[in-house]
Design a protein that fits this description.
Rossmann fold; 3-stranded parallel β-sheet
Length: 119
């Protein structure tokens, strides 16, 4: 995320697991790829209404973490301009994200089934 922001000459905002930010935050519960309930948070003062945000993650497996990030951004009035990841699996959650937002990932279509099956 930080490297992408620097390359694009844009700001960087961390959306983190609860307890890692030392400022006032807003939280969003979610279920991660392993089925565990977790909480994600973001600074309350960092997203102004209408601010366009590119969400970046290494891997979107079930989509739970990314959907929590999307919900945080939108709850604070931000606009999700797109979602980028190294790999976005064709799970139910991954498909939902791809149907509702502009998405980009690095996996060629002919290799996607191997990533979906974790080969």
């Amino acid at each position: 995320g930080a490297a992408a922001a620097a390359t694009l000459r844009k700001g960087f905002l961390a959306i983190r697991k609860a307890g890692h930010l030392c400022v006032q935050t807003v939280a969003q519960p979610y279920t991660d790829y392993s089925g565990r309930e977790k909480v994600m948070e973001v600074r309350t003062d960092a997203i102004s209404p209408g601010l366009r945000i590119l969400l970046v993650d290494q891997w979107v497996e079930t989509g739970g973490t990314m959907r929590a990030a999307i919900e945080l951004v939108e709850r604070l009035g931000g606009v999700v301009a797109g979602v980028a990841a190294i790999c976005m699996e064709n799970s139910e959650g991954g498909k939902w994200i791809q149907e509702h937002y502009k998405c980009s990932h690095c996996v060629p279509p002919h290799l996607q089934p191997r990533f979906d099956q974790h080969q």
